[in-house]
Amino acid sequence: MSSSFLSSTASFLFVLLYIGSFHVSDGAQQGTYIVHMAKSQMPSSFDHHSLWYESSLKSISESAEMLYTYNNAIHGFATRLTPEEADSLKTQPGVISVRPEQRYELHTTRTPLFLGLGVHNSGLFPETGPGSDVVIGVLDTGVWPESKSFSDEGYGPIPSTWKGECEAGTKFTTSLCNRKLIGARFFVCGYEAEYGPVDESKESRSPRDDDGHGTHTASTAAGSIVEGANLLGFANGTARGMAYRARVAVYKVCWKPQCFSSDVLAGIDKAIEDNVNVLSLSLGKRNRDYTNDVAMGAFSAMERGIFVSCSAGNDGPSPSSLSNVAPWITTVGAGTLDRDFPALVTLGNGKSYIGASLFKKDALPPTLLPFVYAGSASNNATYGKFCLSGTLIPEKVYGKIVMCEKGENDRAEKGEVVKAAGGLGMILPNRANRGEELAAKAHVLPATTVGQKAGDIIRRYVKTDPSPTASIVIQGTVVKVKPSPVLAAFSSRGPNPITPNILKPDLIAPGVNILAAWTGALGPSGLASDTSRVEFNIISGTSMSCPHVSGLAALLKSVHPDWSPAAIRSALMTTAYNTYKDGKPLLDILTVKPSTPFGHGAGHVSPATAISPGLIYDLTTKDYIDFLCALNYNSSQIGCVTRGNYACDPRKMYSVADLNYPSFSVSVHGSGGTYKYTRTVTNVGGAGSYTVKVISETAAVKISVEPAVLNFKKVNEKKSYSVTFTVVSSMAPRSNSFGSIEWSDGKHVVASPVAISWT
C-alpha cells in the first residue's frame, strides 16, 4: 500500500520525483519553501529566534505566514511564497538558504525466527529493563491504535525521559495512546497549504492511519507479541516486532497522495524534542547532495544520539538508484524470507509453473478454464494489455482466466478490472526489471504473479494456441524455502549517486512478503471497493526492511546504551553475512547470480552476532563535518546541514577516504592509480589480537593493509590502520569488482565489504 513498494494503492504511485509544490493564488504563483536561518546571527534586539524569523518574513511579505518553525531538525521555518518573494528573502540578513520543499514517496510472523531471534529473543536481549525504555519514532502514515500489536499489557510506566504527547484529531482521542504507543502526532500544514483542508470523509486529520503503511512499519519495528496472526490464513503464527518491548511514537507526516518535506521536517523536529532513541523513515527520493530535508533532519537527530534508519528505495535494479544515502543515515535494502505463498499455474498443454498468491476466498474450479490474453480482449490496442479500467471487452473475458501485463496501474486494480468484466482469474507475469521475484499480493479474485521466464512461456502459449486453457491452484504457505535470503529485484542499487566513495546501501533486511499489522480502514488489496477487513497484511518493499533494522538498532541500544548511532550501524554491518551456510554467495533474484555490495551492502543483517561485534567503527559530528569539507561544501551549505557556524580549515587536507565508515568503495578514475583509505577501530570485545584477511576477486587491484595485526589490551582501546588500493592499469577490467577486508581474533569476524568501480 505504499509508493514504490510492491503492494500499493493506486493513490500511492511508486515514483521518486522532485516536484516543487506550487499553486496559483490571487494571480501569483506560490509554493512552500524551507528557509534556513543562521541562528547565531540573530540581532540582540530580538528576545527569541521565532520573533526574528517572523520579522524577516514580514520584511518581504506582510501577508506571508509561517507553516512551521523548526527548532531542532534545522534552524528556520516553512512558509508560502511567490518565487519573487523567495528571491527577496534570500537577501535578508541571517538567511542561509530558501529552498522549494520536496515531496517524498513512501517507499512481520516469521521474520524474528528467520533472523535468529525467536519469539522471545532467545535470551539475546533483555525482556525487561532498558529494552522497554527505548523509544522508536516512526514517521509515516500514522497508526491504527486498536491493533493488538500496540497492546500495552505487561508494560511498566512510560519512561521518565519521554517528553512527547498524544494529539487528538479526527477519530483519534488521547486515550488511544497507552504504555506501548506512548506518542502520536500529525503534521499537515505542508499538505494543506498545497491541496487545501484534508477531506475528512476519506482521511483522518489526526494520527489515525487510513492507509496501512504506517501501522505496518511501526508494528514491524516494535509490535507487541500477537499469537495467531495471519492474513486470510496465510503466514499463520506469532507476530512480533523486532524490538517488541520497545515503546512506539508515531508521527503522521504522509497524506494521500504524498509526503511533503515541510511536514516530514516538522515530524523529525518534534521527534528530536520528544526524545526518541531511534527514528525510522520508510520514505524518500533521490537527491543530488546532502542539503535535502531528510538528510539535514537526520544529521540533527544523529547529533543527539538518535539512530536514523531509512529505506534505500524501490527503484532497483537500476544502478545508482538509491535514496537516503547520507553517511549519518543507515540505508537499508531488501531481501527475501524463507517463506513463500505458492500458486500453481497449469496450462492446457500440460506444462505447470509456480507463482505466488494471497487469494483465499472461493477457489477456481479444479478443471482447466478458457484462457485469454488481455491485449486480445481489449478495446484499446495500446493499453488494453495492462487491464486498465474500461479496456476489457466483457464478451471476450467472461468466464475466463486473463493474462494482464504489469505496469500503468496497481496489480490489485487489474484484478478488479478483470472481475468487473466477468473474468474468473488472472495471471500477472513479471517484467524484466523484476525477473524471478515473486512478491505476493492480496487480490479480489484468484490471481497469481509468475516470474519473467515462466511469464514469457505462458504469454507465448496464450497468444499462439488456438484454444488456450489454464488453471490456478493456490497452495497456501511454505517455509524453509532455499536459497534464502536473496536480494529483492526492486531494492535500489549503488553506486552511491552522490558520493561514490561511500558504499550504499549499508545492508539488507527482510522486505519481501512481510506480515505485520494493518489499518482497519482499508482492505488488504488497498482498493476502495475491497470491503474486507484484516488485522494483518502482507506487503513488500524497502519500506518493510527499514523498520526491521530500526527495531534491531533499538535492541542493540538496550544492551549498549552508550553506543553512538555510528557504533550501532557498525555492529550491524560488520556482522552481516553475504554467504549461505554452504559458503556460496547470496543471490540476486533478478539474475539468479551472486549479488554484490552495490545491492546488499555489507550483507544481510544478523542480530545474534551484532550484539558482540568485537570491533566497531565509530564516528562523531566532527567527522561528518570533515566529510562535508572533503566534498568542498561551503560554509552556507555546511550551516544548512549542521545548524552551526562552521568553516573548513584551508590549511587542512580533507579526504572522503578518511571517513571512518565500516565499508570501502573505490571509484577509479582513468585506467590506474593508487588510493589510500584510513580507518580506526574501537575494541568492544576484550583484550586480544586481530589479524587481517583480504579478499579480492580481481588481480587488477592489489589491496594491502598496514598493519596486518592489531593488538588490544583493554576495552575501548582504539587502533588505526590504512588500506592501499593499487590499480594495475594494464589489467584494469573497467567493470565493477568486489572483495572484503576482515579482521578476526578467532572469536569475532569484523568484515567490511569492498566495492571498486571505474568512472
UniProtKB/TrEMBL annotation:
Xref: Pfam families:
fn3_6 (PF17766), Inhibitor_I9 (PF05922), PA (PF02225), Peptidase_S8 (PF00082)
List, from the UniProt record, the residues annotated as the active site of this protein: 140, 213, 543
Residues annotated as domain Subtilisin-like protease fibronectin type-III: 658-756
Residue ranges annotated as compositionally biased, kind Basic and acidic residues, are: 199-214
Positions of the Peptidase S8/S53 domain = 131-581
Q: What is its subcellular localisation?
A: Secreted
Q: Which domain of life is it from?
A: Eukaryota
- PA domain: residues covered: 380-457
Annotated GO MF terms: serine-type endopeptidase activity
Q: Which residues form the signal peptide?
A: 1-27
Q: Where in the numbering of this chain does the Inhibitor I9 domain appear?
A: 32-107
Going by the UniProt record, its keywords in alphabetical order are: Glycoprotein, Hydrolase, Protease, Secreted, Serine protease, Signal, Zymogen
Which Gene Ontology cellular-component terms appear in the entry? extracellular region
One example of a Gene Ontology biological process annotation: system development
Give positions of region: Disordered.
198-220
Q: Which InterPro entries match?
A: PA_domain, Peptidase_S8/S53_dom, Peptidase_S8/S53_dom_sf, Peptidase_S8_Ser-AS, Peptidase_S8_subtilisin-rel, Peptidases_S8_3, S8pro/Inhibitor_I9, S8pro/Inhibitor_I9_sf
Family recorded in the similarity comment: Belongs to the peptidase S8 family.
Protein name as catalogued = (rape) hypothetical protein
Give the organism the record lists. Answer: Brassica napus
